[in-house]
Amino acid sequence: MNEIKKGDNVTRNSYNNDVIFCVKKIIKLPNNKKLAILKGIDIRIEADAYLDDLKLINSEEIKKYEKKLEERILNTTLNKNIEKRRKEIINTGKILHLDGDKKYAEKSTMFYKKMGLKAFVKNIPENRQPKAVFRLLNIYNPDILVITGHDGMIKNNSNYLDILNYRNSKYFVETIINAREYEKISSKDLVIFAGACQSYFEALMEAGANFASSPARILIDFIDPLIVAKNVAITEKNKYITIDDFESELRDGKKGINGLGARGKMNVVFM
Fold it and tell me: Is the bond preceding residue 108 a cis peptide, omega within 30 degrees?
């Protein structure tokens, strides 16, 4: 059997091999066991597992996964009513997207380009997002802020109301708070999405997010935060958008993402 190493793609036997991960790093423990730190390749979750619980996934299976993901991105289309307009100048909302995963950041850039949206995607580790957000908001002056990456409940913890039981929710909360501080000195009315898999939904909303994950503490799809940003960006400013308007586009609807809603950020100028 091949030794599992950093960069390998694996699944966890103890979870019925339901999610494919990339091995981020391997830690040698005092008991001589080895623990792998894992990131989902199409699900926004971070986890850990002993090496003897992992199953290697071959490159052909990964190629199939990657192809399906790219097809889903490329098959997503803008609202047909927008595409049919000919006598209007349409300015969609500007997006700043902070992503803790480098590969997801690259795929997000492809998605936004396909949508024809104005977006700036930055690969910033979750723990550095709180310090980076104020500076980036000043530089890009966006209408919509996406704060995401990977998250997850720490194994064997069941207290959903303790933020320390989440891998990255505390950093997402800090980033939201700092973004709202920026808002006080700017003329922007920011729409914020925050969170990843199993994130502390209530804490993110209390900090000031308009939309967040994950009410049911379930996994969310790589593309779910992008779908939120897209729909806010293409909704006219005089309209209020809620999760009901695009629930069907999300992996698990309101179980994965919910929120209070927000006014759209699209400006239409009639010629």
Answer: no
